[in-house]
Structures are given as structure tokens and as C-alpha cells.
Amino acid sequence: MLKVGIVGGTGYTGAELLRILVDHPDAEVAMITSRGEAGVAVDELFPSLRGRLDLKFTEPDTEQLAACDVVFFATPHNVAMNSVPELLKAGARVIDLSADFRIRDAKLWSEWYREEHVCPNLLEEAVYGLPEIFGDKLPQARLVACAGCYPTAIQLGFWPLLEQKLVDFNSLIASAASGVSGAGRQAKVNNLFTEVSENFKAYGVSGHRHMPEIDQGLSWAAGESVSAVFTPHLLPMIRGIHATLYAKLRDPAVAIDELQYLFEERFQNAPFVDVMPLGSHPETRSVKGSNKLRLALHRPPQSDMVVVLAAEDNLVKGASGQAIQCMNLMFGLEETAGLGAIAVLP
Question: Where does the record place the Semialdehyde dehydrogenase NAD-binding domain (predicted)?
Fold first, then answer.
């Protein structure tokens, strides 16, 4: 049984880690930290866990965390990178859900996060936590940088097209929308019910922190430098991401059923990527609470464009579920262990 530690367990991704791990057949949560809630029972903060988890939040302690088999960081950026080097030195393995180790270029990371990276030497070592692409690297990983929510949907949606060089690399457009939980569990005027309800808006159009991560992944897929136009939107709902991806085919003669076959073949061994039948329209409610990413392909008439639709739960496949998927592969467990939950409908 894996002994799991969680740093920063009071946010939404921390709560999701707990929700999934309490039913994991091969792992148990040994400790969960929070400086602000130290001494408080976990089920007092998260009543849904009453009767399922008898733990209290504690102050972070490196020695106690290092005694765990794996430590998850469900923290804002700039937290993990200050603690991870010491944990790795002590022999712990780490899965970071923040952006601290996702971008390989320390200078680029600093430009987007407006501070200096304190352990750039670990950036190259960190395995990017997108299991459908880098699953073979996870068993040897000491440090995993779990992929972001928008980047997961966008990279996997574009990946087969770029990998086979079927599209113009200068034509990539990603228009994506997320529920409010993507902004985290914090008090902000823009996240208030009266501000979000019955409203739909774009944000970060001139530059969003997920852009360099998205471009990095797309470049890995293409084998050369690639950049996409990315426009995020805020949906008036709690959770879920829907992305509409556009790319121009290099050869307009390529048929949509050929592209469908390509996607089905690419993800045939990916238990959490569902390539839906042609003409499908994946919905966010069809993945709510699950670790599934649903993809569907479309080809507008009289057009050389291909459109990929992607839907995922931003807190599960876009964060905590994906992190546990990484954990499973790191420790030689069944990739699907603990992640069999079916989406909640209605």
C-alpha cells in the first residue's frame, strides 16, 4: 500500500486528490498539510469525506513528508520549487500539480511568472505529466510536473495531427472555456456568483500563463517550434473545460475518416481518452467527476480546416485525476486504479 502525502490540501485540487484516493485500492493518505488549517479535521473542511478519512491537517514537515512513498503538491506556483529539492534529496518522489516544473526553460518560466526559478537544475529532469504521451518515462521519474488543465485538452487534441505533420503549423487556434473552479478556491470579486452567473467572457487574450506550456507541448509533438493562438474563456459553471481546436490541413484531399482512424489508432491504448464517433459533440457534463477526455473530429464543408472538439473535467483529468494516473504508472500499478468513476449526470 502506497503511503501518500499531500501538501496544500485545502484547495479544489487537494479536495479532489482526497476524494479519489480514499477509494484507491493501492494507496492511502498518510498526511495532508496546511499552515492555515493545521489541527483542523479534514472532514470539518470537507464534509463529503465524513466517515471516510480520519486525518487532521498538519504543518508541513519535510522529514514526515519524506517518509511517504509519494508527495503531491496541490499548491499555487512558487511553493513546490522551494520544497522539492529537499524532499528529493531525502528520497521522496514528487508529483507537482502546479506550474513550477512544467516549462523547461527557466528564463521563459520567469518571464511568465515574474520571479526567478529557485531550482532550474530540476526542470530538465522533471517528467511532464501527460501519461498518454510520456507514460513510458513515469516509472523512472523522481519528479513529475503534472500537465495543466487547458494544456491537457489542447495538446492531446492537436497531438496526432502534429505528430504526423498533417496540418500547417502556423494555423493552430485553440478556443477554450473553463468553469470557475479553474481559478482556484480563493476569494476574488471576479469569481463571485453575481459576477459569473449568466455571463460568458474571454480573458487572458493578450497572454495567458498556459501559453508557453501549450506551445512547448505542441512543439514536442511536431518535432519543431510551434505556436498556437490560445483564447481562454470563463464559463458560468463550476467545473469542466471545452476546447474547440482548429488547424489547416496541408493536403485538403485527406478525408475525415482517415483522420478519425489516425486518432483512434493513436489513443487505442489510452484508457482515459475517448475518441468519439464522427459527428459527435462531447459535452462537459459527460465527463464531470471523471478522468475522461472526450475528443471528436469535424470537417466543415468546402473547407481545408479540421476541427477537434475536446471536453474534460478541469479538476480531474485536468489536474488531480491525471496526477493519480501518473502515480499509478510511476509505481507499476494499473493505470486505471482508483480512477473508474463514471461522470455524474445530470
Answer: 3-141
> Measuring CA to CA, which residue among 315, 314, 345, 279 is closest to residue 177?
314
Kindly report the CATH number assigned to the domain that includes residue 299: 3.30.360.10
In a domain, 338, yes or no: no
331 DSSP assignment: T
Parts of the chain with a pLDDT under 50: none
CATH number at residue 105: 3.40.50.720
**CA 186/CA 75 separation, integer angstroms:** 12
Render the burial of 8-36: b for 16+ CB within 10 Å, e for the rest.
bbbbbbbbbbbbbbeebeebebbbbbbee
**Counting beta carbons within 10 angstroms of the beta carbon of residue 154, is it exposed (0 to 12), middle (13 to 18) or buried (19 or more)?**
buried
Supply the residues annotated as catalytic.
149
pLDDT in tens, 59-85: 999 999 999 999 999 999 999 999 999
Q: Identify the domain containing residue 180 by its residue range.
A: 150-314
User: In terms of DSSP H, where are the helices of the chain?
Assistant: 12-21, 42-45, 62-66, 80-89, 106-113, 131-134, 149-163, 193-196, 211-222, 256-266, 321-330
Note the pLDDT tens digit of each residue in 170-191.
Answer: 999 999 999 999 888 877 888 8
Let me know if residue 12 belongs to a domain. yes
Global pTM reads 0.97
Residue with cell 529537499: 86
Query: Do 97 and 211 fall into the same domain?
Result: no
Mean pLDDT, the chain, integer: 96
Residue 282 forms part of a structural domain:
yes
Judgement on whether residues 169 and 294 belong to the same structural domain of the protein: yes
Asked if 106 and 157 sit in the same domain, the reply is no
